[in-house]
Amino acid sequence: MPVSEGMIAGLIDLNRADGEGLAAQLTGQLRGLIASGHLGKGRALPSSRQLAADLGVSRNTVTYAFEQLAAEGYLAASHGRRPVVTIDGGERIEGAGTVASSPRAAKPRLSAWASKLQRTDWPMSYQAPFKPLRPGHGDAREFPNEIWGRCLRRSAVWAARRELGSVNRLRLREALAHYLATSRGVRAAADQILILPSAQAALTLIAAAVITPGDEVWVEDPGYPGAAAAFRACGARVSGISLDEQGMRRMPGPAAPTLIFMTPSHQHPTGRLMSLTRRTEFLRASRPGRTWIVEDDYDGEFHYDSRPVPALQGLDAHGRVFYVGTFSKAMTPDIRLGYLVAPPALVSTLEIAQRHIGLIAASHIQEALAEFIADGHFLAHLRRVRRLYHGRRDHLVAGLERHLGEVLSAEVPSGGIQLVARLKRGRADQATVKRLVEAGVVTRALSSLALGKPRDHGLLLGFAAWRENEISAALRTMASCF
């Protein structure tokens, strides 16, 4: 309903404590009055002097609002004359605003994949703080930041002199090809390696390139939730495959799927090592060009009790295996670099897809890392923290037995950065984790990593990121909670 000139100021409510500012508030509320039809087409507004006096604001505030609305087409303004409304409320986009309150936002329409995100536990649903014994991390305090900083500075200085080239820098690809061949038995030319912002980005790229909606994908159960998330985003039907003492079971009955995701070096989360025999079985069961295997070697740098089993990729003679790795565990999480060793037949396609999706790592960080590896700093750092993490693993295992042996049974991994401690007497791990987090010990429920109905209950405990005194203090807190 139209309002009289004297009532206009009464319909405007300005809040001087609002960070939006008086001019912006006045503009929005006048816009709302016009859009709702309270100020009809042809209606003359009070002069800027009169409205400023009525509202108790400066004339400049009112002038700004009039000029802004004139620019948007709501008002016609000329020097020496009061501004006039130029539109009917229905001529603007519906829902332009009301004076009293903002309209309730409509519920957004989401994809089937996005609508399920809130029901997953990846990343950690409770956004736990970084405290002992949070899993999934190395100790950033042990990283040689001064040396890394020098590499970054030199890379930045030379950035302006480098020619624009591939988004995957050649020096880093060559350094990685040599390192992976000697340390993990990976067989790949430098041009098969793509440098990405993370290992998760590598999974996203693989899924986009080889998965068609409706394709069958196998993942470990329990396993890494980020893999299932990436494959479901492309419309895959994801099936969880149970584990035995060697990790992912070989399924004899069903035909091989489009893609199999596994962590054979240290199964996530149990840390189990897949035998050479089991790896060979999976390779024989896959169909070249039809079934792809993704090998995620997320913490393959850390082996303690024996020589590491060569990567599955190195056993593949038919180009069926994607090999995925990351630097966030061995170096520091904020480096934001991962890599993908691609089958030769897919390299060109993946490089194009990498640009289309925008999964590109900063070139100066790539160049700095190439120098860090070439000068021997990376291997020196790994040798030192391997010894450190080995001792921390053993300290955690001994402490669990001493303080919590009656309620927890630890699975001792041959390597990695975390371990599983299974709950005895059928305790519910979700409730236990909640209680521990409230007490200041951060862990993760094994059941939260199950794809379907959880088969096992336990705690995922990190040891690599925590010094022995921190581990001991966390264990004493855990003992008091139990």
| Secondary structure category | alpha/beta
How much helix, percentage-wise, in residues? 25-40%
The name of the CATH architecture of the largest domain is: 3-Layer(aba) Sandwich
The number of helical elements comes to 15
Tell me the distance between the termini: 67 Å
The level 1 CATH classification of the largest domain is Alpha Beta
Task: Determine the CATH topology of the largest domain.
Answer: Aspartate Aminotransferase, domain 2
H and E order: HHHEEHHHEHEHEEEEHEHEEHHHEEHEEH
CA-based gyration radius: 30 Å
Per CATH, the superfamily of the largest domain is Type I PLP-dependent aspartate aminotransferase-like (Major domain)
Spatial order of the strands forming the largest sheet: 3-11-10-9-8-4-5
Q: What is the number of independent domains?
A: 3
Shape: elongated
| Total E-strand runs | 15
List low-confidence stretches: 93-101
Arithmetic mean of pLDDT: 89
Main sheet properties: 7 strands, mixed
Instruction: Tell me what portion of residues adopts beta-strand conformation.
Output: 5-15%
GO molecular function, one term: DNA binding
Organism: Bradyrhizobium stylosanthis
Keywords: DNA-binding, Pyridoxal phosphate, Transcription, Transcription regulation
Domain HTH gntR-type: 20-88
Structure description:
By secondary structure, this protein is of the alpha/beta class. The protein has 3 domains: 8-85, Orthogonal Bundle (Arc Repressor Mutant, subunit A), CATH 1.10.10; 114-123 and 145-379, Aspartate Aminotransferase, domain 2 (3-Layer(aba) Sandwich); 382-480, Aspartate Aminotransferase, domain 1, CATH 3.90.1150. The chain contains 15 helices and 15 strands. The chain has helices spanning 22-35, 48-55, 59-72, 112-115, 145-159, 170-184, 199-210, 225-233, 276-285, 312-315, 347-357, 363-374, 377-404, 429-439, 468-481; strands spanning 75-76, 84-85, 193-196, 216-220, 237-241, 243-244, 247-248, 259-262, 292-296, 321-326, 338-341, 408-411, 418-423, 444-445, 458-462. The protein has a 7-stranded mixed β-sheet, sandwiched between helices. Helix 9 (276-285) links the parallel strand 8 (259-262) and strand 9 (292-296). The radius of gyration is 30 Å and the shape is elongated. The chain starts with 21 loop residues before the first helix and ends with a helix. The model is unreliable at 93-101 (pLDDT under 50).
